[in-house]
Amino acid sequence: MQNRTIKFRFWSPHGKSFVEQYKYSGLVDELFDPDNMLIPSQYTCIKDNHQKEIWEGDIIEFERPLTNKHTKKYTAIISYADAAFLVMAKSSDVDGTLSYIWLHDLSKEIYNWKIKVIGNKFENPELI
Question: What is the DSSP letter of 23?
């Protein structure tokens, strides 16, 4: 089993920016208190096709190859659920179908899906 780096960054609603490399010495459960002044966002340990880190709350675009000539585009937000990172994707189809994909599956090289971080839910809510 491979160890992964567990990193958090924190969104400051008052400062409208991320606080990174925050040194926290309290209980981990306290970080997830809804009354907390900082909102935690965990690193997924996955990078997009431009080597940009993908974080919980990030909004990504990705293309799924359907055939040699056709692809399907999705816009998605990264969430954390059931001890894994989940991609809630909306397709570019007219009906805008929602799909749920495990980020780990999406990032596997065998799928050859092109992933790009385009923003995050805090700084770019209009992209959701």
Answer: -
Q: 3-state DSSP: the chain helix, strand, coil percent, rounded to 5?
A: 10, 45, 40
What ranges in 21-110 are assigned the alpha helix state H? 103-106
The amino acid present at 75, given as its one-letter code, is: T
Instruction: Kindly tell me the sign of the dihedral angle through the C-alpha atoms of 116, 124, 70, 44.
Output: positive
CB neighbours of residue 116 within 10 Å? 14
Model pLDDT for residues 50-69, shown as the tens digit of each residue: 999 999 999 999 887 777 77
CA 11 to chain centre: 14
CB 97 within 8 A of CB 50: no
Does the predicted TM-score (pTM) go above 0.85?
A: no
User: Alpha helices of the chain — where are they, by DSSP H?
Assistant: 103-106
- At 85, which amino acid appears? F
Tokens of 15: 């400062």
